[in-house]
């Protein structure tokens, strides 16, 4: 009985917490009149009009935004994962003093608010002719605070990797590159999952960097595209929720699919 | 297993290499030899996406090989967005309704030629800064007007006030009757500025039309008693509850709706609001000037216009052509007259020649433009020599919002003085 | 040590990128903070400490700092209390509870922009909440329009996102507590509260450190939620320092001054994050 009561209460609290998401979800499938008449009612009658209207926008906000987001996120994560895990292995093999110095430098990246470095980065990219390019945005992602986060996750995880395994591989004559690739990288898989999932999420949801680096002419990511397109005075909630639904579907589905890895990653992260 | 992982790494590296080599500029379109211009616009309930698209089509009809790519500012603050674009190297070729003074020091804007201005406009120098014009003076505005709900006034036996004392009395009576006396679009600084702009323009500039030039010369200050008195009037209205609860949460679109739905008695807004009043609603609404203490009529006046040209654009000549074509297009002006309440200032085309359908509210308010009366610069809004130093207009607008929470009028005006001196010096 | 070959170039490439895109911009910002750089003027001059002295006499900066600290403290406290409460409530390993834990995290998966748009449509003057209130003939409430309520709304929305994160971290941490410890405590006659204090708290202390520090760091950067939800209004009362510094840069064109504020923000974030980490780690050791 108490057990059932507990479960009932837990569900109540969870559903209350998720109410805004429920609202965004059901209202994506209702027309404006239905939404204002009763925002919380389920979508009956059901309409796909909001989604088709969002997809038929002449500026291709949703389609272009999603493609840009996928490219930028995939490239950033695919470069960051090997780069940061190799770097972390390299760092953890250094003498304590060098290691401490390098880690102190990378700790900075965790603290720096993006606003602090944004304008100089834009200036730098202009100097080298990479302003308003995906390359510029991806480089800024790879070299910025995300690298710091990945380094800290990997270095923390590597502390738990037994030295003997690495030494054994060395005795077998493997160079550091091979030790990293064949021994270390497979062993830090949970850390890789954490890094890939979190960075993927953060890069996808990033706001200021794409806003300034890509600019309005060269196509936006979906996150900034939504910001730039939904005007201040828009009270067309059907349209708004339709766009939100399409913009959110990829990260949410991605999360639901990868949540087992996700929880594992978090657990290893949280207990470190 | 190792193979798949290696291929992941390989693909990552090759992606990176590919991106680096290609320089990858997505979404760039070229159109075989023609010129593509970028045009920064902004959207309001009157100036919709369709209006801008149509106006661009109309203006490019007469130009060969010019296509225009529209950039829409994410908020109504296109001025800040223009600076943001400039900082990231994407300053547009043509810009709609920015504050030219902000961009002049950097030489970013190209003036229009005087002969063209003289030939086409009633006040060719209405937007001139140091003798040069960066926005064609195509139309004019009274900013703000006091719009009022005739039905509500009749219902509560109120007449149009002609002095400040009567105005305050009308507000008090509406309040007592349970009607929000004055509608405010307080959510954004530009629209929240209206009462302040009205009071300072009428009470301060009405007495000394050269006040802004004197402020530049350091002869007057915001902390002078006459300014403090004018601004205190707004603070007193706030304290009397004249703007209703939660006025700072109401955005421009919501405010329009509430006023037109009869939820409030009066509304201080630029004359462009006339365009939001439909023909069916027109009999219930009218406009008057914000009254002064002695009842002297002061018109806070702004010569408007839209298009500024980027002087550093690779296509500056084409951009200027487009800007001129846009500004003289009778179709564009007709739409602006109908939807944005624009009072036309073209030399060659009279109001009746546009074929625009306007309401009696428009014609009544237009009389203030045509009549021989005291017109002063609408402070914080004009784009000529009376424009405030860069950034100060925004602080001035925000002051109108701060008056809702801060009782110390003089200290806030002192902060404005400090900001002015800093901005004008640099 | 010849075998090191191969890894070092990759590592130093990473360091180089980091130097280019983080260390250099940081130094550049520091340098600009000593100049009167204005993007709309051709040249800038060295002005020494004058930007830093200007900060002392800037009531708006003070207001943004006060607001930022208020939000940071409120969000950190609310997110950790509710996050821990949720984690404890949902700390069972059945399908039901796994689904609940999955649902709770969704706000964190969405971008700040989308979260803020969803909440804006709920809280705005003609929004869903006021529409619902109108159904029961209640007066509309200016959730984003009165200075106090707007601040509360911002705190609530940011907390909502952060609770999601905190819950999952605490849930993960709770699962590292061996059940035997509870049994042992129970045998010793410890009550629920005592068990929580003596067993749970020490075991989840590292999770708490992570939550608190990440919460501090991310809330200090707060920008996108404010940009969408209130635009800094009403009357600039919901401007975070991170928001204000971009406004100084782009409305007032004062890049030099904006860089000085950026340095202040960085010093504050780093100082508070380091102090809190230090204190919590010390406490972890004591527990």
Automatic annotation (TrEMBL), chain A:
Which Pfam family, any one of them, does this sequence belong to? BPD_transp_1
How does this chain sit within the bilayer?
Multi-pass membrane protein
Q: What is its main location?
A: membrane
Q: Which Gene3D superfamilies match?
A: MetI-like (1.10.3720.10)
Q: Name one GO biological process term.
A: transmembrane transport
Which cellular components does GO assign to this protein? plasma membrane
Q: Which residues cross the membrane?
A: 66-90, 102-125, 137-158, 179-204, 237-257
Q: Where in the cell is it found?
A: Cell membrane
- Domain ABC transmembrane type-1, residue spans: 66-258
* Key words, A-Z: Cell membrane, Membrane, Transmembrane, Transmembrane helix, Transport
Q: Which family does it belong to?
A: Belongs to the binding-protein-dependent transport system permease family.
| PANTHER family from the UniProt entry | ABC TRANSPORTER PERMEASE PROTEIN MG189-RELATED (PTHR43744:SF12), ABC TRANSPORTER PERMEASE PROTEIN MG189-RELATED-RELATED (PTHR43744)
The protein's name is Sugar ABC transporter permease
UniProtKB/TrEMBL annotation, chain B:
Q: Which Gene3D superfamilies match?
A: Periplasmic binding protein-like II
Q: What Pfam family is a match, any one?
A: SBP_bac_8
Q: Does the keyword Metal-binding apply?
A: no
List the coiled-coil residues: none
Would I find Phosphoprotein among this entry's keywords? no
Which InterPro entries does this entry report, sorted A to Z?
Answer: Bact_solute-bd_prot1 (IPR050490), SBP (IPR006059)
| Residues spanning the signal sequence | 1-22
Q: What is this protein called?
A: ABC transporter substrate-binding protein
Recorded source organism is: Dactylosporangium siamense
Automatic annotation (TrEMBL), chain C:
Q: Where is the ABC transmembrane type-1 domain?
A: 65-276
UniProt lists the family membership as follows: Belongs to the binding-protein-dependent transport system permease family.
For this protein, the record's PROSITE patterns field holds: ABC_TM1
Give the transmembrane region(s): 7-26, 67-90, 102-122, 149-177, 198-220, 254-280
Which protein is depicted? Sugar-transporter integral membrane protein
Where is it mostly found?
membrane
Source organism per entry reads Dactylosporangium siamense
**Subcellular compartments:** Cell membrane
Q: Looking at the record's lineage, which domain of life comes first?
A: Bacteria
One of its GO biological process terms is: transmembrane transport
**Record-level GO cellular component terms:** plasma membrane
Any idea which UniProt keywords this protein has? Cell membrane, Membrane, Transmembrane, Transmembrane helix, Transport
Q: How does it sit in the membrane?
A: Multi-pass membrane protein
